[in-house]
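JOB MANIFEST
job_type = single_chain_structure
chain_count = 1
residues = 239
[input]
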Amino acid sequence: MTLQSFMPTALIEFLMKGNQTTVITGSKGSGKTTSMMSLIELIDPMFNLRTQEENVEYLRKLYPMHNIIALRDNRFDSKEKDVMYTSDYDVLVFDEMEEQDSIFANQYLNSRFSIFTHYGKDFSEVVACLRNSFLKKGIIDNVKAAERHVVNLIDFNIHVVRENDGPCYIERITECVPLSLSNGDQLYEARNIVEIKDEAYVTVHPISQQRQEMIERNLLEEEKVTFRAFNKLHWMDET
């Protein structure tokens, strides 16, 4: 499948510059790890990037301008050798989230945002998997509280696929929109922002107004102008 990828690529650039926690999903061999690593180029080099130890050297060679550190790095305090030190200038980069969910559960306390991969087929599967893992590990002991915690941490989902050993491509980009308690049992809505239809990318729902404002708070003034123009161009009737 040959696709014009400018639209989703531009959107993803705004998500990274806007510090949006993003999960890249897909089946084994779909290219989700490669896709995740390509996002690093879009992240501000002033941020520390924390990732699994086995990825550190590889990513340092790919992105020499970025400060890439192992998830657990005791250089700052030799007294606590098994503590992950994070700050507002840290971005967490996880490959296969289910192995690092305890760290992710607390990322909102200290890091700026995260990007990670997950084997889920859709966003609801990611939410259910992380919710159940939080419950099983005793991170949170209430089902609804665990699910709300997950949906408050994840902003967007990029789903990638690969067909018949062909190139990897983005199938859809979905926003996670947390809902108020007045919506009963439904704690979030998964809204497709971009998806493939008839072998072309089409826009579906606009980015929620609250999320647009959150993204803009992290953009430079000239980037804000471009972002607003981007939204107006693709969702003229709805923004």
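[summary]
The first strand starts at residue 22 and ends at 25.
Helices lie at 6-17, 32-39, 53-62, 101-105, 123-136, 143-153, 209-216, 221-234.
exit_status = 0
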